[in-house]
Amino acid sequence: MASISPSLLSADFSALGQECRTVMDAGARMLHFDVMDGHFVPNLTVGVPVLQSLHKALPDAFFDVHLMVSRPLDYIQAFAGAGAGIITFHLESESPADEAIEAIHAAGCGAGLAIRPGTPAKALLPFLGRLELALVMSVEPGFGGQAFQPAALEKLRFLYAEAQKAGHSGLWLEVDGGVDERTAPACRAAGANLLVAGTAIFCAPNPAAAVRRLGAL
Ligand code: DX5
Ligand code: ZN
Question: Would you say the C-alpha torsion 8, 10, 14, 19 has a positive or negative sign?
Answer without folding.
Answer: negative
